[in-house]
Specification:
The complex is a heterodimer of chains A (245) and B (427). Chain A contains 9 helices and 10 strands. Chain A is of the alpha/beta class and 245 residues long. In chain A, α3 packs across α4, α4 (111-125) crosses α5 and α5 runs parallel beside α6. Classes of the chains: A alpha/beta (245), B alpha/beta (427).
Chain lengths: 245, 427
């Protein structure tokens, strides 16, 4: 595995009892990419992200992050990644700033570094004075922006974002996508994100993998996929790949 | 009728009754718990009565006259009697005669008993004969005074043989080896309020703490902050220990405030009784010593810790706060049964199997301890602390294994018997 490869999975499977969530899942993500994992609900996107982020153990196969095995070197992997779960919340009775400080302390080596992280996060989320308010007073969009900022503020080598703009209105979703794009450009962060919104992915991702029922059904750059399947957008590509169209 | 009411009601009933947690918690558990409690209570009362009837009694005969011989003879027909002549109550205690005869009470027939009876029967009604009844106070609960009440019936029967009110009894209690001029019945009534209040308070404290701990973990799962924590560069055991330490801090405050409240509660009895009753728990030696308070505090603390660790494990099986609270509810019978049983019954009077079952429940121990420290029985408290500590360590080990693996995220309690097994899609 080259150092330019951020994530590589080989023959990855994950079973939950009799349910096969991932089947022979092979993925390769280059460093500095925004990589989209797309598919319908229940396709296995979250399971794949959870395995890469060391939350779940693979049933078989291998997953590596910057050449570190997610099972054997889980502790080391956690030092270079951040993970944003789908529909996650913040601690209701902490203020936005307290939440960012709490999360930052796990990575920051000193007070100055922590302050810099929080300043960065405040800049990313754009919540301004509202960061002093408790998280329970935030709207869904504000909360998501806070969490995206938390996931990016430590400048991880790999940010794993599960449905980063899910449930957000058009403006909030646009804002979150812009944050991700800007941050990747400025800080060379690799992003592995999932979405069931294929139009959104088309606008933000350099490379995408379409998955269905735990298996990869197509992969490539959005433009290439559209050309290959003679489709106007990724939704059409997906429909053709799984046989709806 | 309100428009739509019936439709809403039917929907609500379907929703609620089809929820296995509600069905089990609200219907099945009470249907089992109360019959179990009732059986234990009824059995305990029966045992206490049988024990009182089988008990042996030491008679200190300091009279030596005819009537004392008749009294002893009549008493022998009711209970097993041992007689010592020319022995004062103080001598009986100092020579450990009660343990020698395996008895918990003695009757002193004072000198002049027969002479007073003869004088009364001769027509001098102002002269009466008396017997002194001394009962060992064991702090055993509601049926404590059953033994001494048997003598009331006996004296009544004896008087009917001769003349009404010819003999009366004076009762005293033996508390921690010392004779105190307190009627055991009065003492029992006084201690009963304490016997009820302490288990209830402990029960409330434990249930409340468990809800806090379970909610804390379940909230992390529901809000998915736990997933975030588990991907941070930190030791996963630290997540568990941090959670427990936070709960321990709250529990510690709970234990201290409980002890302060308990101290006030015990002190309040010195002034709440009517004048002339001369009941003062402090002077009777029926309040814990400083060491006793310390032991009780430790017992309560380790039990709280075990309850919190158990709540953390249970909440690992839940997907959300509501689920966690329902799951914690399943162990409430383990809190309620010891509390209710030990309110009324001395654990030592229960049959072996029940006794072991109660000792095996960690939540019994602070209740047992609260009574044992009053009686100065520190070994029982120490045993409870050691047992609950080991139980807690075992539970914490299981909890740490859960946090170390993916099980903390993937475990779910399924009620396959109550609803169709349904394969949920995995996202």
């Amino acid at each position: 595995m080259s150092l330019d490869v951020a994530v590589e999975t080989v023959g990855l499977t994950k079973d939950f009892g009799s349910i096969h969530a991932l089947k022979d899942f092979n993925l390769r993500i280059e460093k500095g990419q925004i990589f989209g994992l797309i598919g319908p609900n229940g396709a296995g996107k979250t399971t794949a992200l959870r395995v890469v982020s060391t939350l779940l153990l693979p049933t078989s196969g291998q997953a590596k992050v910057f050449n570190l095995d997610v099972v054997r070197d889980a502790g080391e992997v956690r030092k270079i990644i951040t993970y944003l779960p789908d529909e996650a919340g913040a601690y209701r009775n902490l203020s936005g700033k307290e939440y960012l400080e709490f999360m930052g302390r796990f990575s920051a080596r000193n007070r100055n570094e922590l302050d810099e992280m929080v300043r960065q996060a405040a800049d990313i989320c754009g919540l301004g004075e509202r960061l002093k308010d408790k998280a329970k007073t935030y709207s869904k969009g504000m909360k998501r922006r806070l969490l995206v900022a938390r996931a990016l503020m430590t400048k991880p080598k790999l940010a794993i974002l599960d449905e980063p703009a899910s449930g957000l209105d058009v403006l909030h979703a646009y804002h979150v996508r812009e944050i991700i794009k800007r941050y990747v450009r400025e800080h060379e962060v690799t992003v592995l994100m999932s979405s069931h919104n294929m139009l959104e992915v088309e606008h933000i991702c350099d490379q995408v993998t379409l998955i269905n029922k735990g298996m990869i059904v197509a992969e490539g750059k959005p433009k290439e996929l559209k050309e290959r399947y003679e489709s106007a957008n990724l939704e059409e590509v997906f429909a053709k790949v799984v046989g709806f169209a | 009728m309100l428009k739509g009411f019936r439709n809403i009601l039917v929907k609500e009933l379907k929703e609620l009754m089809r929820d296995p947690k509600i069905f089990l918690g609200m219907i099945i558990v009470p249907l089992i718990m109360f019959p179990v409690l009732g059986s234990i209570m009824s059995f305990s009362m029966q045992t206490a009565q049988e024990q009182a009837q089988k008990a042996s009694v030491l008679v200190l005969n300091n009279d030596g006259g005819n009537f004392s011989a008749i009294l002893i003879s009549n008493l022998s027909a009711t209970v097993k009697v041992f007689v010592e002549n020319a022995t004062s109550p103080e001598e009986a205690l100092s020579h450990n005669l009660l343990s020698y005869y395996n008895s918990t009470q003695f009757i002193e027939i004072p000198s002049g008993f027969s002479a007073n009876m003869s004088e009364h029967l001769a027509g001098n009604k102002s002269v009466k004969a008396s017997v002194m009844i001394y009962s060992v106070f064991s702090g055993s609960g509601m049926f404590e005074d059953l033994g001494s009440s048997i003598f009331d019936y006996f004296i009544e029967g004896f008087n009917r043989q001769f003349q009404p009110n010819i003999v009366y009894s004076e009762k005293s209690s033996i508390i921690k080896g010392e004779i105190k001029n307190v009627d055991p019945r009065m003492l029992s009534t006084l201690m009963l309020s304490q016997a009820i209040a302490m288990p209830i308070t402990i029960m409330i404290l434990l249930t409340y703490s468990m809800q806090i701990a379970a909610t804390s973990v379940a909230m992390e799962k529901e809000e998915k902050t736990l997933e975030t924590l588990l991907t941070l560069p930190m030791d996963r055991f630290a997540v568990l220990m941090g959670k427990l330490a936070g709960s321990i801090f709250v529990a510690g405050i709970g234990a201290v405030t409980y002890m302060i409240g308990f101290n006030f509660y015990m002190g309040s009895f010195t002034s709440s009784f009517p004048a002339g009753m001369n009941l003062d728990l402090v002077s009777l030696g029926l309040v814990p010593s400083l060491f006793g308070y310390l032991l009780l505090g430790i017992s309560l603390f380790v039990t709280l810790l075990s309850a919190l660790a158990l709540a953390v494990i249970l909440s690992a099986f839940a997907e959300d706060v509501r689920g966690a609270q329902s799951l914690v509810g399943y162990i409430y019978p383990l809190l309620f049964i010891p509390s209710f049983v030990l309110m009324y019954v001395n654990i030592e009077s229960l049959p072996f199997v029940l006794k072991i079952a109660l000792y095996a429940i960690p939540f019994s121990h602070p209740i047992i301890a609260s009574r044992a420290v009053v009686m100065g029985d520190y070994w029982t408290v120490a045993f409870g602390i050691v047992y609950v500590t080991f139980f807690t360590l075992a539970i914490m080990y299981v909890a740490s294994r859960l946090f170390a693996t993916e099980k903390i995220l993937t475990l779910k309690l399924k009620f396959r018997g109550l609803r169709k097994s349904k394969k949920e899609p995995v996202e």
